[in-house]
Each structure stands twice: as structure tokens, then as C-alpha cells.
Design goal:
With 321 residues, the protein is α/β, with parallel strands linked by helices. It is built from 11 helices and 10 strands. This is Putative Bug-like extracytoplasmic solute binding receptor, TTT family.
């Protein structure tokens, strides 16, 4: 009998310790892996939300950039990390939706990620260097047709929404152009500032400062409505390009196997951060809409996005190794 009491006591103690360990989370800093270079929308929103979440969670939230290969390098690093709630990723439309149909093989699969919550959705914007002699979408179309050596476009990387948005645009205007991919939005912006290519359809937040400073000229936005930050810039539809509504999105994901209770705490912390007045104002200044939905709702959203972009990739007949 004493032996049974000892065993029972040991089991109870283990259960209590396990529960305490879960309840005590987080006991150390949390890292958000950004699968992109500093300066782009993925990086910007990760730092904004991370700073706010650190105050809510009572632990430092560290942003770690792992750029390259259309978000594959950073995403692979995330799925290889321990599923304990201390390593998260700022997922986005590229690695978590487009890549599944764009790449023949990937070092990760959909089931390797556990959605937490949508953080922000933003429209894309068609931009050119202000020195380029075009002031409208129709003028850009004519310029590309007349200047074969200038039929180039840049992006934050192969498979990212700026890349696929530009491919979609070229399909709509029935033209082709050479793709110049960069390792992130920051480098891509620098490339256009240096006139290394002709146009880009970028996530609005990363190009907005260059537009506002007059270094970029915005020709159209890809949202259903005009952006409050660029009220004089037409939508693609208003500019004469039909069926060209595209929104980029960014959201927190964890490695598969992360406990549900920890995912729930992370979602609540992110939601609280996204509902704060300063984050709402900052996201609005970036042209974005805050998220904060439940893990289940975000999972459904990601699944829908995977199907949407698969249709676009297949229509463009794109395939990467």
C-alpha cells in the first residue's frame, strides 16, 4: 500500500509540475523569426507587434531576420525549432500560401505550421522611380511596349506577393518583362531608387516612405478601394486593369505541436496589442488593417489563400525548383 501511495504521489507531483510549467509560460524571451530582410513590411509589423506583446507577456520579444529563398530559409528555421511557444514566425502570403503551388519541392509542408492570428493585411502599390517618364498605368504600359531594354520589374523575392502581383499585371496587359528578385523589400526598394529596374508592385508599407518623399511615383493600388494614405492614386480597376485586386497579409505562426494553451495565450496577447490605439494608428499610417482573429479563423483564411494563389500560379504557368 505504501508503494502505491508513493507511486500515486509521484504521478501527482509530476502532473502538478507539468501544469505549473505550462502555467508559468513564458519564462524566457520569445523570438519571432522574420523570413525576410530588415525594412520590409514583414519586418516592420513584426517589430511593432513584438514590442507591444513583450509588455503584455512580461518577456522580451526578439525579432530575428532570416531572409532568402522566398521566405523558405526563415520558414524552415521555424519548423525546425522546438514547439514550446518560444519561437514564432511572422508568416505571410509568400511562404505560407504561394510557395506550395509555385515550388516543385519545399523543405516544409502546410502541416508544419500552427496558425496563431492574422496581424495585418495591406494592399500592394505599383511604383516607378520618379525619374521614369511615366505618370499613369497606361503610360507605363506604352513605355514598356516601346522600350524593350526597360521591360524589367523588381520584387522582394521569388514567390512573394510583389512577384506574383507583377506577373498578374503583365498577364493583364499582355506583356512580358524580366524579373529582378531581391532578398527582401528593403533591398528591392533600394534597387528601384537606383533605377536598376523599371517598376515594382510592392507591399504599400515598404514603399510608402519613398512615395511620400517624392522618390517613387505611385501609379495604382491593388485594393478594392483607394488607400487613405494615397487618396489621389487610383485603384488598378480605375486605372483600366480589371481583375487585379490583391492584398498582402502577415500573421503569427508557430511550429506544429505547440501546445494549444500557449497558442491561445499568444493569440490573446497579439489581439490585445493589435487593439491598442497606437498600433491601430501606426497600421493605418502604413495603409494596413489590423488582424487579431482566432487560430481557427486564421487557419481557414490561410487555406483559402493557398487555393487562391494556386489558381494564379497555374494560370501564369510558373514553376520553380
Amino acid at each position: 500500500m505504501s508503494f502505491l501511495r508513493t507511486v500515486a504521489g509521484g504521478v501527482l507531483a509530476t502532473m502538478i509540475l507539468a501544469g505549473s510549467a505550462s502555467a508559468a509560460w513564458p519564462e524566457k524571451p520569445v523570438t519571432i523569426i522574420v523570413p525576410a530582410a530588415p525594412g520590409g513590411t514583414t519586418d516592420i509589423v513584426a517589430r511593432l507587434v513584438g514590442e507591444k506583446m513583450s509588455k503584455i507577456l512580461g518577456q522580451t520579444v526578439v525579432v530575428e531576420n532570416k531572409a532568402g529563398a522566398a521566405g523558405i530559409i526563415g520558414s524552415q528555421a521555424l519548423v525546425r525549432s522546438k514547439p514550446d511557444g518560444y519561437t514564432l514566425g511572422m508568416g505571410n502570403v509568400g511562404p505560407n500560401a504561394i510557395n506550395y503551388s509555385l515550388y516543385k519541392t519545399l523543405p516544409y509542408k502546410k502541416e508544419d505550421f500552427k496558425p496563431i492570428t492574422l496581424v495585418i493585411s495591406v494592399p500592394n502599390v505599383l511604383v516607378v522611380n520618379s525619374e521614369t517618364p511615366v505618370k499613369s498605368v497606361s503610360e507605363l504600359v506604352a513605355y514598356l511596349a516601346a522600350n524593350e531594354d526597360r521591360r524589367t520589374f523588381g520584387s522582394s523575392g521569388k514567390g512573394q506577393s510583389p512577384h506574383l502581383s507583377a506577373e498578374m499585371f503583365l498577364q493583364r496587359i499582355k506583356q512580358t518583362a524580366q524579373h529582378v528578385p531581391y532578398k527582401g523589400a528593403g533591398p528591392a526598394v533600394s534597387g528601384l531608387l537606383g533605377n536598376q529596374y523599371t517598376f515594382m508592385i510592392d507591399n504599400l508599407p515598404s514603399s510608402l516612405p519613398s512615395i511620400q518623399s517624392g522618390k517613387f511615383r505611385a501609379l495604382a493600388v491593388t485594393g478594392e478601394q483607394r488607400s487613405e494614405q494615397l487618396p489621389d492614386v487610383p485603384t488598378m480597376k480605375e486605372a483600366g486593369i480589371d481583375n487585379m485586386v490583391v492584398n498582402a497579409w502577415f500573421g503569427l505562426v508557430a511550429p506544429a505541436g505547440t501546445p494549444d494553451d500557449i497558442v491561445g495565450q499568444l493569440q490573446q496577447a497579439a489581439k490585445q496589442a493589435l487593439q491598442s490605439d497606437d498600433i491601430i494608428a501606426r497600421f493605418k499610417s502604413l495603409g494596413g488593417t489590423p488582424g487579431g482573429n482566432t487560430p481557427a479563423a486564421f487557419a481557414t483564411f490561410i487555406n483559402d489563400q493557398q487555393h487562391l494563389w494556386a489558381d494564379t500560379v497555374h494560370a501564369a504557368n510558373l514553376q520553380m525548383q
